[in-house]
Design goal:
single chain, 187 residues, three-stranded mixed β-sheet
């Protein structure tokens, strides 16, 4: 418990890349307990991606048994995907995401990095389409993710890795939702 409280006091700092080529807006969503990411998808569309415990998030089995199993680790994981209409602005993203958000952070990253990550996530989603489950609560389609969910490999950790793939610098523990976004050096 002491370790958890210590981690809660530490923020995960995200710094977007300085002067990215062909910058595009991406959005880090802090849902108060976990995170998700919104990427541009061309023609003004956006796609939201989320990672979590399959039973808790995709099947909405949110009882104590599922919660403890997810925390203890090694449970089946889910990749969530949902399309949003544009524009690529904080207000538009916040208005369209059915799941509550504590904070929406806009980051500018290189278009090529965003397209590469979106392509990888869409490929993973399509490869697991046979396991598709729709959640009206979260307005997301979920498929099984090959990496098991655990307290050490949760939505915040996975989202931090996605941010790094976009060229962002991520510092500090990402086990819990305590994000702080800072401008790139020189801004």
């Amino acid at each position: 418990m002491a370790v958890f409280l210590l981690l809660a006091a530490c923020a995960t700092v995200v710094v977007a890349p300085a002067a990215p080529e062909e910058p595009v807006a991406v959005f880090l969503l802090d849902h108060g307990g976990h995170a998700s990411l919104v990427l541009p998808a061309g023609e003004g569309r956006l796609v939201r991606y989320a990672y979590g415990d399959f039973r808790w998030y995709a099947l909405e089995q949110t009882g104590p048994g599922s919660g403890f199993a997810a925390l203890l680790g090694g449970t089946p994981a889910a990749l969530g995907r949902g399309e949003l209409k544009g524009p690529a602005e904080v207000q538009a993203v916040r208005a369209q995401v059915r799941e509550g958000t504590v904070q929406v952070y806009e980051l500018r990253v290189a278009r090529a990095a965003s397209e590469r990550l979106r392509g990888e996530l869409d490929e993973l989603f399509e490869a697991n389409r046979a396991t598709l489950v729709h959640s009206a609560t979260y307005d997301l389609d979920f498929v099984r993710h090959p990496t098991p969910y655990s307290a050490e490999h949760n939505s915040n950790v996975v989202t931090a890795r996605w941010l790094e793939a976009l060229g962002c610098e991520v510092q500090g523990p990402s086990l819990i939702t305590n994000w702080r976004v800072e401008p790139p050096a020189g801004d």
